């Protein structure tokens, strides 16, 4: 049986045009609100002329369909039709009522384009699609406008489908069923996404639980320790599960190991690889490797973790061994940002920052790679900063472009209360007013220099100013170690 619903009085065209012929089924002037039906179908008579009221269960469980139209005949006809097919249906005759009933979180909304007042069905559609709770609701727009421009406007506003007046019953039911399926599938996808996010959050918490706590990393033996070494760390996970990991422990009462690694990519695969490397280094289970020699450790890791066996993932690492007796630091790196050794000021010299890095490919990229090592003396009161690239590969929170000047090594760049903080010009930006797209390694090292000049260099101040530069959310994990000798 085919039912046809009329134009509402506000949506009815004033007269037919050449491109849009007159509809022979449009109600005549004597019965403008009557329901037009197929000529071969007798008008059914129903005793239940009043739509079924909402029950407490409807309110508690939500509504399947919300119908918005200023024509009460259309509202009643559509509501009864859909209720008889088992749907929980409510109606609204104007925009304010419709907005109030959105709290019922309907699965499908059938809305007339033209409504009384300043707002229209387009406005309701935009409001719904911008609401996080309602964005999965299927929106069906009823209209008598059939031209392409109007269709495009409706779809660009976020509508999922259109119903052209007079509405055919079979088409209405089919589109409502499709809208319900779309809503259910989208809800299931959102639910699955929430579960995955929760699982990733649990995985991130597990990875964080494996990281060592801050401590004064003395040998812990009965023998006296002339130069106890305090280690402070900060780890801020990104919005996605990342692959940063670090550790520090004593190989024996005199030798301290400290390292930081960063696995390529994000997600569970990166986290699994980082924890695997962490366990291998903690257990010292690399065969034939002298863990007192940084270059042999990196070579052993490269042989054990080739990216062809690790789902095409590789990692960078900075690995150092500190001898507390000789105050000598041996180190090697594999594609990792340099550590920064801060030598304290003396009566004859200012504080000095020295980048510590050796040449070497990231671990896992190629087999049979040899790694170099270096060593340096650590002055009493010196500090070593080891970090991942997530601490400086950040975009400015302020979208306004910043500039650097080639006339000097430093340029004013305001962050926080340090209005005169300076950063070095970027490489490959030789002209004045070059845009600074991110903090960068040079900018980060100069931030350390600036903080040290104010005697305010510590992990918390570093995190404060980096966060002030890029905001509270990071695209990559941020790891930072401070070793005070």
UniProtKB/TrEMBL annotation:
InterPro entries: Bact_Sigma-Reg, CheY-like_superfamily, PPM-type-like_dom_sf, PPM-type_phosphatase-like_dom, Sig_transdc_resp-reg_receiver. Residues 1-55 are annotated as: Disordered. Keywords: Hydrolase, Phosphoprotein. GO terms for biological process: phosphorelay signal transduction system. The modification 4-aspartylphosphate is found at residue 112. Residues 64-180 form the Response regulatory domain. One of its GO terms (molecular function) is phosphatase activity. It comes from the Bacteria. Residues 1-11 have a biased composition (Low complexity). CDD domains: REC_OmpR. Pfam families: Response_reg, SpoIIE. This is Stage II sporulation protein E (SpoIIE). The lineage of its organism: Bacteria, Bacillati, Cyanobacteriota, Cyanophyceae, Leptolyngbyales.
């Amino acid at each position: 049986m085919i039912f046809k619903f009329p134009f509402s009085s506000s949506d009815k065209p004033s007269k037919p045009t050449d491109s849009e012929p007159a509809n022979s089924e449009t109600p005549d002037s004597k019965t403008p609100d009557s329901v037009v039906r197929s000529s071969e179908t007798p008008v059914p008579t129903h005793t239940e002329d009043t739509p079924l009221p909402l029950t407490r269960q409807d309110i508690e469980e939500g509504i399947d369909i919300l119908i918005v139209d200023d024509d009460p005949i259309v509202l009643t006809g559509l509501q009864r039709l859909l209720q008889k097919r088992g749907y929980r249906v409510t109606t609204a005759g104007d925009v304010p009522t419709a907005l109030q009933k959105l709290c019922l979180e309907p699965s499908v909304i059938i809305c007339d384009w033209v409504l009384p007042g300043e707002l229209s069905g387009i406005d309701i559609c935009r409001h719904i699609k911008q609401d996080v709770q309602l964005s999965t609701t299927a929106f069906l727009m009823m209209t008598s406008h059939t031209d392409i421009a109007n269709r495009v406007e409706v779809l660009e506003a976020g509508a999922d489908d259109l119903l052209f007046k007079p509405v055919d019953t079979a088409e209405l039911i089919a589109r409502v069923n499709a809208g319900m399926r779309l809503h259910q599938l989208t809800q299931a996808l959102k639910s699955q996404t929430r579960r995955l996010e929760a699982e990733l959050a649990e995985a991130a918490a597990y990875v964080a639980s494996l990281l060592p706590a801050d401590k004064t990393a003395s040998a812990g033996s009965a023998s006296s320790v002339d130069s106890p070494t305090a280690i402070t760390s900060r780890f801020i996970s990104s919005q996605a599960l990342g692959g940063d990991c670090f550790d520090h422990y004593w190989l024996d009462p005199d030798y301290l190991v400290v390292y930081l690694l960063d696995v390529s990519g994000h997600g569970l695969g990166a986290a699994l690889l980082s924890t695997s490397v962490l366990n291998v280094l903690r257990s010292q289970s690399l065969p034939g490797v002298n863990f007192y020699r940084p270059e042999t450790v990196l070579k052993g890791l490269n042989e054990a973790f080739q990216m062809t066996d690790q789902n095409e993932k590789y990692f960078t690492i900075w690995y150092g061994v500190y001898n507390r007796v000789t105050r000598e630091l041996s180190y090697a790196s594999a594609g990792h940002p340099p550590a920064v050794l801060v030598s304290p000021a003396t009566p004859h010299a200012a504080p000095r920052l020295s980048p510590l890095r050796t040449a070497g490919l990231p671990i896992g990229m190629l087999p049979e790679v040899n790694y170099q090592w270096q060593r340096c003396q650590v002055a009493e009161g010196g500090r070593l900063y080891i970090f991942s690239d997530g601490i400086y590969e950040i975009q400015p929170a302020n979208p306004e472009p910043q500039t650097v000047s080639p006339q000097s090594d430093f340029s004013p760049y305001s962050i926080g209360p340090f209005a005169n903080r300076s950063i070095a010009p970027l490489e490959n930006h030789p002209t004045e007013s070059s845009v600074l797209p991110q903090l960068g390694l040079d900018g980060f090292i100069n931030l350390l220099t600036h903080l040290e000049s104010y005697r305010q260099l510590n992990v918390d101040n570093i995190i404060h100013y980096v966060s002030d530069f890029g905001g509270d959310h990071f695209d990559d994990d941020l790891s930072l170690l401070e070793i005070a000798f």
